[in-house]
Amino acid sequence: MVETVRSISGVPQAAPPTAPPTAEPPLVPDCAWPVQIGREQAVQTVAGRLPPPGAADLQAELHLHPLLAVEFVGSTRPGARRPPLTGHALVDLIGGRAYVAEPWTEVEFLALDQLSAASPAPAAQIGREEAVRAARRVLGNVLLRRRRWGIGGGLTLGRDPICVAKPNWWITGAAGGRAVEVLVDAVSGRHYAFRA
């Protein structure tokens, strides 16, 4: 339905469009996790798992993936003897899934230009508020299980979340006449086969 207004001359005109609600600015990584698994090590990891070992023709490209790193502090019950628990989560800004993570607060993140050989991180598909809610849900579930440790149930942000790029090796090629596509986490070394 188009709303109409009358101009000074009395001729009906369409009402001026109302401004859409302001959306949060898209999240863009400020920094990147340092690469712990080099190109050769990633290729060797994949080649060693393909039949026959060592007969693969593989290439590796470094890609960045945007994550939001979030820290929450669980409030304690009055009179609790233990300090509040701190929980860390990483939220995938493409798919929206949150993961409980090892503390990332001591990681010496790199400036993005130090990984200039990597492809740029894709645009985030979810916003900051949605990502923080996802992290709160996953950490809330974990901390609720620890109520016996004096967690009162409330979670507050321990520090401002940071948008960080995580490096991954995209390994492609062929082995034994079959196409190979494997993602190797350049921080942990874990790998995920798409085709092998």
**Oligomer type:** single chain
Main pleated-sheet profile:
9 strands, mixed
Percent of residues in β-strands: 35-45%
Flag low-confidence runs: 1-11, 15-21
Q: Globular, elongated, flat, extended or rod-shaped: what is the shape?
A: elongated
Through-space gap between termini: 54 Å
Mean pLDDT: 81
Count of DSSP H/I helices: 2
Radius of gyration: 24 Å
> Roughly how much helix do the residues carry, as a percent range?
10-25%
Task: Write down the domain tally.
Answer: 1
**Helices and strands, in N-to-C order?**
EEEHEEEEHEEEE
Give an account of the 3D structure.
Residues 14-26 have a biased composition (Pro residues). Residues 1-26 are annotated as: Disordered. By secondary structure, the protein is mainly beta. The protein has one domain. The chain contains 2 helices and 11 strands; from the N terminus they run E-E-E-H-E-E-E-E-H-E-E-E-E. The chain has helices at 39-47, 128-144, and strands at 4-6, 12-14, 31-32, 57-76, 86-92, 98-101, 110-111, 151-157, 162-175, 178-185, 191-195. The strands form 2 sheets. Strands 3, 4, 5, 6, 7, 8, 9, 10 and 11 form a 9-stranded mixed beta sheet that branches. The chain has a two-stranded antiparallel ribbon with strand order 1-2. Strand 5 (86-92) and strand 6 (98-101) form a beta hairpin. The longest helix has 17 residues, at 128-144. Residues 1-11 and 15-21 have low confidence and may be disordered.
